[in-house]
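Board notes (copied after class):
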Amino acid sequence: MNLYAVILAGGASSRFWPLSGDEHPKYLLKPDGKRTLLEHAFERAKACTSPDRILVVTNPAQVRRVAETLPDLLAENLCIEPARRDTAAAIALSCRVLASRDPNAQVLVLPADQIIEPVSALAEAVRKAREQKDFGEYLHVFGIKPRRAEAGYGYIKADQCFSPGLCRVVGFREKPDAATAQRYASDGLHYWNAGCLLFAISAFERELASHMPSHSRRLHPAEGEVDQAAYKDLEAVSIDYGVLEKTKALRMIQLEAEFDDIGTWDALLARLEKLGVPPRAAFSVAGGSGNLVIGGGELVGVAGLSDVLVVIEGKKVLVLKRGSGQAVKEIARVVGETTA
């Protein structure tokens, strides 16, 4: 078995301000009130391969967080980026590491900050794809049939199926407007983009060299340490834009699973409430109700308002009306510019 899993855990989502930045990356949120998103990702990886074949890519500022959260992760499998350069560089860096260990490696790339359930569904989809005789010639993305119209997700458009559950990719669409998302949810051609990848390392090297030659030259699998200065000079480009939207060697694996990328405070609250573990209630008066508090030990009172979330982190406080989660990114931007 030469399947390896790479978990991407280097980001810090501004949509969860004030719990954001390197000390509070999104993957440390607990969508079930117990385990972090990173721990969920590690469990998904273990369902597909052995623990000693799981790598985590992160940045220097988050190494301690990752190591503390995943005590079973081997130290040599913690891959540290010299600088944040988006997903294309992070994946290329991990492939460089893996190619030096196993030139015939097959790689499953998993984001650290989402939910896919059950984990057995992912393992089964990976197995079926790897059984294809021409598996090694293609890069594979994972698509999930939309359960609802979701404007906050990315979409894959697919048509011709080569075999059950394996289809040709026609195009991508990132975060459509509400009307378009409604159409995608019912047209039978569009799938939620799960953000996961599967490929033989040789196919990835070939496509990276073709579409991102600068990344390929600087991160081509080789012995020795990565040139940190050369890595920092790389353009920050996502794997979607840099390779997947350009390559002809791409297929989509249909994934029969529940999916949630926990992209906003609204999404996190909805999941916690669904599981029966909501945050603590605020003290509500004057007709207010449904007000919740995350963080801090303070007693929070809300008068005359309903369905408000109050998030407390040190000297930072967020007051959010339910349904306005997408706007938090703008607060983080303005606060960041003000305090810079």
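Comment from the instructor: The chain has a mean pLDDT of 91. The chain has eleven helices and 17 strands.
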